[in-house]
Amino acid sequence: MYTAPDYYLVDELLSEEHRLIRKSVRDWVDRSVVPVIDGYAQRHEFPKHLIKEMGSIGTFGPYIPEKYGGAGLDQMAYGLIMTELERGDSAIRSTASVQSSLVMYPIYAFGNEEQRLKFLPKLASGEMIGAFGLTEPNYGSDPGNMLTKIKDAGDHYILNGSKMWITNAPIADVAVVWAKDEQDVVRGLLVEKGMEGFTAPETLNKWSLRASLTGELVFDNVHIPKENLLPNIKGLKGPLMCLNSARYGIAWGAIGAAMACYDTALQYALERKQFNKPVASFQLQQKKLAEMITEITKAQLLAWRLGTLRNENKATPAQISMAKRNNVEMALNIARESRQILGAMGITGDFPIMRHMMNLESVITYEGTHDIHLLITGMDITGIPAFD
Ligand code: TGC
Ligand code: FAD
How many domains are contained in the chain? Predict the structure, then answer.
């Protein structure tokens, strides 16, 4: 039975509505994700059947207005949902992050009313799946140098190029794709499944996020109708604004993975006996557990404060970078320490720790690597960009 760590009574900082939302997602994760997710990860398979359920419990676009199928919730609710989903598996949270922050958000924020009405309700319900194409084979941390291009051909654009490492690409009905126009300005496009010249092959043999689908987006002279251009954004700040929202969600999500590992390790250490004593009675193991709960508590407070700043529209991108970087590293360290507390049992799929640890190796790289977020903090405090 899972017990959510709350050492500093952070729950008291939440509203009754927040706690109810969290409970409904927590119950769903216990019912629908926890019992099956190890099998999907072992088989390197995405649990596609969960998508509609995720839509029905409101995990897609929770902060998008109800008019467009969202739940009209605040940023704190979004964060709490992400924590619960990632307690199940980072793949499940990834799907919700991409759908909410990287697909629904840009359509809502940068799209016109027709685009909003056409896509958002179906994305909210899970009837449609979205993907976000920014990273390219040769440009990951440095998306500003992207090679994917659009050319104006009168009543349509012609799109050429490719994107790599794209979550949900192989099953996406619509992809928000970032490409440069003939003036070298980054623009956002809605590329739909079935458009001629558009393919999305799967990326196989991953050791991380095995229950998530990853793929490429390949564009070979794809004709994009002009009405599929996102009209209200120009420049690299468009995709980066989407990343602010997704990185914020990851800062909360990583806490869920850390909590699952800590809770598993604590229970195991209390039950497992060596030298006629519970493993939890040894000082070395208590040090590990005590440090874990300390780090989880700090991460919770960071996320909570960031949530209040987001609700007040005051959170800066650099503050979000700090929380994403800190909380993902915290979760990865806790996964590694927890794994050791379980000894050999820690490497099996009977416990969630190894799966979380391997997933977090992607989480620490995507949405901006650990290094890039440090450089963003460095630039923020010194005023000097050290990227190039
Ligand atoms: P730079 O010149 O600094 O900025 C270009 C323009 O963007 C503005 N800007 C931002 N705007 C909003 N939010 C932010 N976070 C912003 N950061 C920068 C900036 O003010 C400027 O605006 P303007 O009006 O002056 O043009 O850009 P740069 O080329 O030097 O790059 C800066 C850098 C390295 C920080 C940035 O490019 C970066 O963050 N790189 C990391 C790339 C990244 O995070 N990729 C993620 C791909 S998506 C993904 O991983 C999804 S995983 C999903 C899942 O499965 O969960
Ligand atoms: P690179 O940019 O090549 O970096 C390699 C190394 O160099 C890193 O350690 C990096 O920190 C370091 N480095 C780079 N630049 C600097 C610098 N200036 N100073 C110091 N060190 C530097 N992208 C999408 O667009 N959409 C998605 O849905 C998506 N999903 C993903 C899913 C998974 C499972 C994974 C693993 C990735 C996904 N990505 C996605 C891509 C992800 O965002 C990129 O992998 C990430 O931004 C890093 O780019 P890269 O892998 O090309 O590494």
Answer: 3
